[in-house]
């Protein structure tokens, strides 16, 4: 026997109420038990969304504890170092962590098991090697530019580079899990296990008598990252071994690199874009200002994670529909994903504005200075959500080059406005630059999806189609 929401509602609720609840209960049953592409994507997004909520709570608690424990100055140093490592870890995958979401469904659907085994093995080795090169280059850069770097950043940045290969490998494993619709293993290691372990290791260091500074926090992050990623690698490796038919791996490295490098540009520009404001505040302002702005951005993450959750659930389904030639299904699904993104984002945006100030005060004295910024940033995030995960549609349909171009222009706009506005307006300058860049990005992505694919990815607007994708 299995649980059925429809049957439960019929048995437990009074007649009239049960009849009203039946349509909603039936939807729950279809989402949980149906094995079609739409339901699988919905489950992936729902699990990702749920894990993001739990992660938001964990991340919020951990950041509050870190801020209160370390103080604004040391917390600001840790924030800048950790955000930089997350960016470099994502970039050093060179696009393989996203291209694999495209290749795994394609190879599975066409029975190309040797190629599937080949890319699973190659992608992990490639990412480990490339991220190690990035770490060594980063260490050389710190040594070369050390006289121009504030002294309190030097040791934390050196230490942060130690965990760079593991951050990159974790991103790659997350891509493999997303490609297989393993929602729990796609989200839990990075968004649940790692932040909890950082807190536990930091607490253990506190009991051992270490000072509450940025260096100790980075060491705790290194230990947590290595433990989490190695566990993820071993568990997912065992799972793949039992699920894949035996075959001699075939390596199409040239093809995989050709597809991954444009995606690398897209992901690099996108990741830099989503974190450029924090980095630019660190460039022009003091660590305490970085701490206030980052706390504001972490509060804003309650709205952001709707977009990321939907994106995590739908990318592989976009690829499956496109490579399966299911034009009408792709169009209908794309419209659904816009609604999945916009309405929860709007709801969460209103919620954040209602509770934002009390949340920021928990970080410590002075952190509520970031609350007015939330009105501008929330409006921008909700505006971007109105086009859904349009960049995933472009990337999965082979239009990653134009997507990279959009992000390059958006990043240039963001950085340029930050350079102009932060010295004049301070944190308001960073928020305004980010908001303008977000709106430009959303508008450009929606326009290109319509021009290239004939699909209108925008809430409230009717669908227009072309006869074929291309």
Short description:
Helix content is 83%, strand content 0%. The chain is an all-alpha fold and 470 residues long.
Fold and architecture overview:
The chain is an all-alpha fold and 470 residues long. It contains 17 helices and no strands. Helix 15 (390-396) packs antiparallel against helix 16. The protein starts with a helix and ends in a 17-residue tail after the last helix.
Helix count equals 17
- The structure class reads mainly alpha
Using only C-alpha atoms, the radius of gyration works out to: 22 Å
Number of strands: 0
How much of the sequence is in beta strands? under 5%
Termini Cα gap:
46 Å
Low-pLDDT regions: 1-6, 463-470
Helix percent reads over 70%
Query: H/E order of the elements?
Result: HHHHHHHHHHHHHHHHH
Largest β-sheet summary:
none
Supply database-style keywords.
17 helices, globular, mainly alpha, disordered N terminus
């Amino acid at each position: 026997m299995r649980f059925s929401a429809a049957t439960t509602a019929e048995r437990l609720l009074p007649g009239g109420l049960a009849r009203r609840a039946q349509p909603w209960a039936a939807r729950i049953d279809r989402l949980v038990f149906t094995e079609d592409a739409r339901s699988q994507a919905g489950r992936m997004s729902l699990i990702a969304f749920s894990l993001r909520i739990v992660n938001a709570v964990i991340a919020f608690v951990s950041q509050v504890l870190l801020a209160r424990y370390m103080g604004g100055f040391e917390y600001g140093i840790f924030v800048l170092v950790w955000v930089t490592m997350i960016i470099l870890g994502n970039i050093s995958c060179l696009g393989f962590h996203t291209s694999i979401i495209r290749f795994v469904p394609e190879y599975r659907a066409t029975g190309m098991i040797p190629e599937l085994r080949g890319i699973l093995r190659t992608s992990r080795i490639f990412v480990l090697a490339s991220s190690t090169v990035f770490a060594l280059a980063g260490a050389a850069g710190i040594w070369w530019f050390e006289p121009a770097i504030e002294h309190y950043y030097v040791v934390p940045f050196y230490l942060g580079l130690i965990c760079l290969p593991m951050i990159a490998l974790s991103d790659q494993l997350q891509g493999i899990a997303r490609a297989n619709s393993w929602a729990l293993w796609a989200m839990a290691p990075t968004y649940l296990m790692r932040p909890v372990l950082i807190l536990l290791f930091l607490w253990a260091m506190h009991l051992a008598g270490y000072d509450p500074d940025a260096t100790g926090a980075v060491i705790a992050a290194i230990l947590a990252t290595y433990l989490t990623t190695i566990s993820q690698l071993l568990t997912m490796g065992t799972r793949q071994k039992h699920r894949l038919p035996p075959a001699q791996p075939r390596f199409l490295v040239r093809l995989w690199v050709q597809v991954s490098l444009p995606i690398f540009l897209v992901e690099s520009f996108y990741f830099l874009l989503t974190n450029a404001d924090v980095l630019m505040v660190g460039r022009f302002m003091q660590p305490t200002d970085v701490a206030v702005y980052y706390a504001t951005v972490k509060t804003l993450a309650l709205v952001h994670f709707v977009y990321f959750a939907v994106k995590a659930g739908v990318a592989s389904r976009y690829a499956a529909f496109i490579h399966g030639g299911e034009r009408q299904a792709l169009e209908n699904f794309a419209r659904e994903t816009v609604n999945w993104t916009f309405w929860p984002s709007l709801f969460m945006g209103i919620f954040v504005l209602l509770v934002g100030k009390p949340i920021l005060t928990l970080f410590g004295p002075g952190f509520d200075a970031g609350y007015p910024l939330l009105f501008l940033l929330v409006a921008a995030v909700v505006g971007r959500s109105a086009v859904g995960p349009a960049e995933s549609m472009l990337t999965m349909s082979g239009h990653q080059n134009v997507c990279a171009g959009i992000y390059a222009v958006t990043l240039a706009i963001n950085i340029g406005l930050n350079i102009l506005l932060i010295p004049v307006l301070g944190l308001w300058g960073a928020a305004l630059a980010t908001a303008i860049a977000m709106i430009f990005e959303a508008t450009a992505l929606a326009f290109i999806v319509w021009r290239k694919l004939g699909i209108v990815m925008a809430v409230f607007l009717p669908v227009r189609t072309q006869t074929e994708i291309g």
